[in-house]
Specification:
The chain is 37% helix and 18% strand. By secondary structure, the chain is an alpha/beta fold. The radius of gyration is 14 Å and the shape is globular.
Amino acid sequence: MTTPRTVLVVDDEPQLLRLVSRVLTRAGLQTLVAADADEAMRVFRGASEIDLVLLDVILPDGQGAAELMPRMLAERPDLEVVVTSGDQLPESLEQALAAAGGRYLRKPFVPRTLLRTLGVAEVGSAGSAGPTTSEAG
C-alpha cells in the first residue's frame, strides 16, 4: 500500500468542506481543510506534505484562488492545483491555472467527478456520498 496523498481543501462553505473531506478520506487521501485565505496559508505552511490544493475562486476575506495559487506555487512549485467555482473563471485566472498545469472543477460536482478531476481512483463508498449543494463560487 502506498502512502496516501495529502490534499488541502480551501472553501468557505462548511458543508462542502465536510463532504469533500469525507469523500477524499474514503478514497484513501489525507485531507486538510481551511475556510479562508489566512487559514489556508497557515495550514499550507504548517504541513510538510501537501501534494494538491483544491481552491475556491472566491473566499470571504476577499482573496481566493487568484491570490493564493501564486503564493503557494512560489513556495512549492511542484504543487498540483485544482480551482473550483460555480461561475466561469476570469480569463487571467484561467491563463494562470493553465500555466501552472492546474485544472478547473465546476460547482456543483458529484464525488465521482471530484475524484476523477483529482486523478484518484474510487475506493470503497466514496462515490456514494451524493452531490454537493454549493451555490457560492
